[in-house]
Design a protein that fits this description.
The complex is a heterodimer of chains A (140) and B (304).
Chain A (H helix, E strand, L loop, with lengths): L8 E8 L3 H7 L9 E9 L3 E8 L7 H7 L4 E6 L2 E7 L5 E3 L20 E6 L4 E4 L5 E3 L2
Antiparallel strand pairs in A: 1-3, 1-4, 2-3, 4-5, 6-7, 7-8, 8-9
Chain B lengths: L11 H16 L12 E6 L5 H12 L3 E5 L13 H9 L4 E6 L4 H8 L4 E6 L5 H15 L5 E6 L6 H10 L5 E6 L8 H9 L5 E4 L2 H4 L5 E4 L10 H7 L18 E3 L20 H19 L4
Helix pairs in contact in B: 1-5, 1-10, 2-10, 3-4, 5-6, 5-10
Classes of the chains: A mainly beta (140), B alpha/beta (304).
């Protein structure tokens, strides 16, 4: 299978195989008017198999969401057919309105306008805790 | 501007400074009687309390200041649906410092993010109650003369008791402290406290269901209420409830210098006859609650 390179936009590489659907949804890629390619189960020497997403448009990408879903993703910004900037992600220290606190005793359960903020408390186990009630949210 | 939302925000040095100031207030109350002249404390209690609210108010009055506020949510604009943030922005205009109790966890943090004066968490649901922990630390310090080299027994509801979790977390930072965790199997200390505090810091601890087993070792016995509604069935509650009633008979095996603490209110877990025992420190603990709140307010207001 051959998918062309893009002239201008963003390439998300080294996505853990099977996670591209989740990323597509959480980044709201369905609302873009440009060409978006989602390639699944690509052979990879590093991961065995991986997913890739190519977006033929520059848009403000939420790197916190990406880093939370899969901190191993590499992000390349493409300009004039060449890589202008490339970096790998890490687990974000804080997430705002990405995770939602489900603790019925938390203040966020009764006051809707409060942003749901989680802090990374255990990077090894990828544990995030609500900053208000310390309820745990584990990525695994 | 500093707030007091969670005891973990304080360094050992800052805790030490507050306790030292509280001890000086106990020794020389007259020196501090006008420190808060023309200062106003707002006590915003969205759920009822006896000790905490009155001790905050008494503390401010003893510092020469005055108090305003409400003691239940129904007598505030919360009953009309006002948010915590808006209530706090409003009350910040009328007061110099705020003490707040709220049934929802994290409400005082929201308050601190929206306040233009210092906010003190006076209890948020089952989450944090930092001034109770400061009270407990001051009581242990004044009764035992130290916060290190102690064997601390915690007895009763160790699963849901916020005062127990905060006290373990605070005491674990001092040297050579050991814990005896006395509770029914259903109400043991949660796993995250054991993992994140006790095991992570290599602190010796043991669990038992029998208070008699550990009584002779204890320097501090911290009693809590075993609440009937926590039990999964009536039979378990009936079987276990009397295990944790402290009687003069059970104290026969305790050290002469041991001290008994309780965050109060008690129901039946400490026999009234125990009150006469010099080891019973829980009413002195109540008194300390006022002094430690005086010290905390002076620190947060930048007056000492």
């Amino acid at each position: 299978m051959k998918v062309d390179g893009i002239e201008s936009g963003i390439v998300l590489d080294h996505i853990t195989a099977g996670k591209s659907n989740q990323i597509y949804r959480l980044l709201g890629l369905e609302s873009l008017d440009c060409c978006v390619a989602m390639i699944q189960n690509v052979r990879s020497t590093k991961l065995g198999k991986k997913d890739i997403i190519k977006i033929a448009s520059e848009f403000e990408i939420n790197l916190d969401v990406l880093g939370y879903i899969d901190p191993n993703i590499s992000v390349s910004f493409i300009k004039d057919g060449a890589v202008a900037k490339k970096f790998t992600l890490a687990l974000p220290q804080q997430l705002t309105n990405v995770l939602y606190c489900k603790n019925p005793r938390c203040i966020t359960s009764s006051e809707q306008e409060i942003p749901h903020v989680f802090k990374l408390t255990d990077p090894e186990k990828q544990v995030y805790r609500c900053i208000y009630c310390e309820a745990k949210h584990s990525n695994h | 501007m500093r707030h007091m939302i969670d005891i973990a925000e304080l360094s050992l040095q800052e805790i030490d400074d507050i306790l030292t100031l509280a001890k000086d207030i106990i020794a020389h109350p007259e020196v501090y009687q006008d420190d808060c002249n023309r200062k106003k404390l707002a006590t915003l209690f969205f759920e009822p309390s006896t000790r905490t609210r009155l001790s905050f108010e008494s503390a401010m009055l003893d510092l020469g200041g005055s108090v305003l506020g409400f003691s239940e949510a129904m007598s505030s604009s919360a009953a009309k649906g006002e948010s915590v943030a808006d209530t706090i922005r409003t009350v910040s205009c009328y007061s110099d410092i705020i003490a707040m109790r709220h049934p929802k966890e994290g409400a005082p943090l929201i308050a601190s993010l929206n306040a233009s004066v210092p906010v003190i968490n006076a209890g948020d649901g089952g989450h944090n109650h930092p001034t109770q922990t400061l009270t407990d630390l001051l009581t242990i310090l004044t009764e035992k003369g130290r916060l290190d080299n102690l064997t601390v027994g915690l007895c009763g509801d160790l699963q849901f008791g916020r005062t127990v979790h905060s006290l373990i977390t605070a005491m674990a930072r001092y040297g050579n402290v050991r814990f005896a965790l006395i509770s029914p199997a259903e109400l043991r200390v949660p796993g995250y406290i054991k993992e994140n505090v006790l095991e992570k810091n290599n602190i010796p601890w043991k669990e038992t269901e029998q208070i008699d087993e550990v009584m002779p070792e204890l320097d501090i016995l911290y009693m809590t209420r075993v609440q009937k509604e926590r039990f999964f069935n009536e039979a378990d509650y009936i079987r276990l409830k009397d295990s944790y009633i402290l009687t003069t008979d059970k104290l026969k095996n305790a050290k002469e210098e041991m001290r008994i603490l309780h965050p109060l209110p008690r129901v039946n877990e400490i026999e009234y006859a125990v009150d006469q025992d010099p080891r019973a420190a829980y009413f002195r603990q109540v008194q300390n609650g006022k002094y430690v709140r005086m010290a905390l307010m002076l620190k947060l207001l930048g007056l000492r």
